[in-house]
From TrEMBL:
It comes from the Eukaryota. One of its GO terms (cellular component) is apoplast. It holds the Pfam family Phi_1. Its main location: secreted. It is found in: Secreted, Extracellular space, Apoplast. Keywords: Apoplast, Secreted, Signal. PANTHER family: PROTEIN EXORDIUM-LIKE 2, PROTEIN EXORDIUM-LIKE 5. This is Uncharacterized protein. Belongs to the EXORDIUM family. Residues 1-22 form the signal peptide. The keyword Oxidoreductase does not apply.
Length: 238
């Protein structure tokens, strides 16, 4: 399959990113130094974990081509694939099993296309939440992807994506949701590195974008980072 090599490259990058970026509620890119890293030790802080079979619903806000959507969907589905030799995305994802209570199996759920700028081209956090609640959130993680022409509060300045939680419709339970933006036309040097020249640090040539789309390949890494943070620190209490 065409994505096997691409995701092998991304798996190696994800491992590198995971060593230098601990799970946080807000995802920002930090450029690593090329030094030997200490062994990765996962410490459990007794917070809630999302384990078992989890549905991932996708909300596409504004224009994404079918190819762009397929890149992100194929990445999601590769997390639980066991047929790809290492380095693989699924092997990287298995590190989440080092926390208690077993594995987190992510299954593609409903997709919602919002191509009418229903909240305009500049989104506040409350608008992201409103988009996330369009899909069912029982045993689910809802993901909001915003297109390259959509500005989001804090995007590029302090974050490339976030994982957040909110009260469910019954007001008694919480659900987790994620936002990731396409930085291609806004801040690729911040949120699409290493596929674009970084905005600071050594100005080494960027890596070739595996799928020929700098913005979406950058989204894959940020999506992976906030997904990992979501299942291991679901409600920011761990």
């Amino acid at each position: 399959m065409a994505f096997t090599y691409n995701f092998a490259v991304l798996a190696s990058l994800l491992l590198l990113v995971s060593l230098v970026n601990p799970s946080t509620t807000t995802t920002t890119r930090k450029l690593p130094h090329l030094v030997k890293q200490p062994p990765l030790v996962l410490k459990y802080h007794n917070g809630a974990l999302l384990k078992g079979n989890l549905t991932v619903n996708l909300v596409w806000y504004e224009k994404f081509s079918s190819i762009q959507r397929s890149i992100l969907i194929d990445f999601l589905q590769s997390l639980n694939s066991h047929s790809t030799p290492p380095p693989s995305v699924s092997l990287w994802w298995k590190t989440t099993e080092n926390y208690k209570e077993g594995s987190s199996n992510l299954l593609l759920g409903k997709q919602i296309l919002d191509n009418s700028y229903s909240f305009g081209k500049s989104l506040k956090d409350s608008y992201i939440l409103a988009l996330a609640t369009k899909a069912d959130h029982k045993n689910a993680i809802n993901v909001v992807f915003t297109a390259k022409d959509v500005a989001v509060a804090g995007f590029c300045m302090s974050r490339c994506g976030t994982h957040v939680s909110a009260c469910g419709l019954d007001k008694r339970s919480k659900f987790a949701y994620v936002w990731v933006g396409n930085s291609e036309s806004q801040c690729p040097g911040q949120c699409a590195w290493p596929f674009h020249q970084p905005i600071y640090g050594p100005q080494t040539p960027p890596l070739v974008s595996p799928n020929g789309d700098v913005g979406v390949d950058g989204m894959v890494i940020n999506f992976a980072t906030v997904l990992e943070a979501t299942v291991t620190n679901s409600f920011d209490d761990g």
